[in-house]
Each structure stands twice: as structure tokens, then as C-alpha cells.
Design goal:
It is built from 7 helices and 4 strands; from the N terminus they run H-H-E-E-H-E-E-H-H-H-H. By secondary structure, the chain is mainly α. The protein has one domain (3-151). The strands form 2 sheets. A two-stranded antiparallel sheet has the order 1-2. Helix 1 crosses helix 5, helix 2 crosses helix 5 (116-129) and helix 2 (29-46) packs parallel to helix 6 (133-141). It is globular and about 35 Å long. The model has no long low-confidence stretch (mean pLDDT 89).
């Protein structure tokens, strides 16, 4: 696992989302994790199964999951001065976090540090799903590693 690559990828994801309309820019942890998975999957397809971040993705309640990626969200967002909003809802026991960037200038600097196939995978996915959680989850559930892992449920399975 490479923390600097995880942070770079998360920062790129939020910077790519900043190019969208204002109501689409805000991403929660679940969006950031799923977009990181999409990037790692694109890299693994190109690099013989090796992920960009080096994390071990597992099949969990909401599809692909990495505790390591989740733990890096706040530090990675703080490093690039991303905005953070915490929303409470009486219907749910947990608060919701949303992150976004106001400025759009960081994208070019960040994308220069990433392989082109990752840049394209993330940009295409954000263009298609933005912060539409249902569609994004549906998409990642149908990726080959998730379908393979789902066959072996109920236990959590690694999907690398």
C-alpha cells in the first residue's frame, strides 16, 4: 500500500468532480472510495492485476471497500484545502460527510502525476455518475471482481 498514491488519487477525484456543476461537486466517502476502486481496477486491468494504490480491496456491504482508502480521505482532502460539510439527518444514526473543491485549477497539476489510463477512468466515471450514489454502486457491483467475490459470500473476500 502506498499512502502517497492513495492521497494523490483521492485528491485527483475531488478535483475532477470540481469540474462539474456546483450541485454535483460534493462527494461523500462512499463516492471517493468507489472512484478510487474504479481507478485501481483500470490500473489492474492494464498492469496484470497490480493496483495503483497497492491496497487490498474487499467485498463488503456497499461493494468494494478499503479501510486504508477510507482512513486517508480526511488527510488527503485537508492537504488540498477541500471543503467539508457534515450533515445530520433524523432518519439516520450517522452523519453524512461531503467534500468538494471550490477552485478548479488543481486538476491539471494532479492529473500530470497520474497515469493517463487512471485519469481517463476517473474522469469518465465522474462524467457518468458524479454524486449519483445508486448508479455508481450499481456500476461497481457489476465489475468482474465484485461479481466473483459475491459468488463466495457471506464472508468478506479480497478482490485483487
Amino acid at each position: 500500500m502506498d499512502i502517497s498514491k492513495i492521497d494523490l488519487l483521492l485528491q485527483f477525484i475531488i478535483a475532477a468532480a470540481a469540474q462539474r456543476d456546483p450541485w454535483e461537486r460534493k462527494l461523500g466517502p462512499i463516492h471517493l472510495i468507489k472512484y478510487a476502486y474504479i481507478a485501481d481496477l483500470a490500473h489492474a486491468r492494464r498492469e496484470g492485476g497490480k493496483t495503483f494504490t497497492g491496497v487490498k480491496w474487499t467485498f463488503h456491504h456497499f461493494g468494494p471497500w478499503s479501510f486504508e482508502v477510507y482512513e486517508r480521505i480526511d488527510p488527503a482532502m485537508e492537504e488540498i484545502s477541500a471543503q467539508k460539510e457534515t450533515v445530520s439527518h433524523p432518519k439516520y444514526k450517522d452523519d453524512f460527510k461531503r467534500y468538494w473543491l471550490e477552485e478548479q485549477e488543481k486538476l491539471q497539476d494532479l492529473e500530470k502525476k497520474l497515469p493517463l489510463h487512471l485519469v481517463l477512468a476517473v474522469k469518465n466515471a465522474i462524467r457518468e455518475f458524479t454524486n449519483d450514489t445508486t448508479s455508481l454502486l450499481h456500476h461497481v457491483y457489476l465489475t468482474e471482481p465484485m461479481l466473483k467475490a459475491a459468488k463466495n459470500l457471506p464472508s468478506t473476500k479480497h478482490v485483487n
